[in-house]
């Protein structure tokens, strides 16, 4: 038994022990990075799509009331969320159609979509980041700078996802996008 390395195997040399420990350490680090990436991905998706999901939830509750069974709530939540996304991509089709016809009217649906899909979720992220600071520290320059920096970065990130000036749409929503494009041309 090696007294310097009590967890070494009986016939394991010092080099073999170091190699094994290095591999174990790298595996643990890799697992931690994967877990952190999954956590960050879930947070991003919740912030980006959470506003639309919450709007779908509010419409479902208004329509069916609070005493509805959970299956009905989930079904209509997904249905209304899909309809809200369909409206967003319909407006995106209008934006692209009006831009191809060189009409300045494309700015109106673009502003509406940017406010709904980029600014509102970024304001939620800004308030969450500001809430991480102590109540006394929330008015400090550091807190304001970090929270507004998070607002700007997140709004740019969400705009990069939606790409309102690019002629792209998810396959599941392409029908809505194409209707909006045909409507505007």
Protein architecture, described:
- This protein has five helices and no strands.
- The radius of gyration is 25 Å and the shape is elongated.
- It is mainly alpha-helical and 185 residues long.
- The protein has one domain (14-184).
- The mean pLDDT is 86.
Number of structural domains:
1
Which structural category do the helix and sheet elements fall into? mainly alpha
Coarse morphology: elongated
Give the DSSP E fraction (strand runs of 2 or more residues).
Answer: under 5%
Low-confidence segments: none
**Major sheet characteristics:** none
Tally of separate helices: 5
Got a strand count?
0
Helix content: over 70%
Mean pLDDT: 86
Gyration radius from CA atoms, angstroms: 25 Å
Distance between the termini: 81 Å
Which properties best describe this structure?
mainly alpha, 185 residues, elongated, single chain
Care to give the gist of this entry?
The mean pLDDT is 86.
Chain-wise SSE layout:
Blueprint: H1 14-64, H2 70-100, H3 107-131, H4 141-162, H5 174-184
């Amino acid at each position: 038994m090696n007294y310097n390395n009590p967890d070494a195997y009986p016939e394991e040399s010092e080099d073999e022990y170091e190699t094994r420990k290095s591999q174990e350490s790298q595996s643990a680090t890799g697992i931690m990075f994967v877990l952190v990436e999954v956590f960050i991905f879930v947070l991003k998706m919740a912030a980006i799509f959470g506003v639309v999901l919450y709007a779908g939830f509010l419409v479902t509750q208004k329509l069916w009331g609070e005493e509805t069974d959970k299956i009905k709530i989930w079904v209509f939540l997904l249905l209304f969320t899909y309809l809200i996304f369909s409206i967003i991509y319909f407006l995106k089709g209008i934006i692209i159609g009006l831009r191809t016809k060189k009409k300045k009217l494309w700015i109106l649906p673009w502003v509406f979509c940017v406010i709904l899909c980029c600014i509102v979720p970024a304001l939620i992220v800004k308030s969450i980041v500001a809430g991480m600071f102590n109540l006394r520290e929330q008015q400090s320059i550091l807190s304001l700078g970090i929270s507004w920096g998070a607002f700007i970065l997140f709004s740019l990130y969400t705009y990069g996802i939606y790409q309102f000036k690019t002629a792209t749409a998810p396959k599941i929503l392409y029908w809505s996008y194409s209707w909006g494009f045909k409507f505007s041309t």
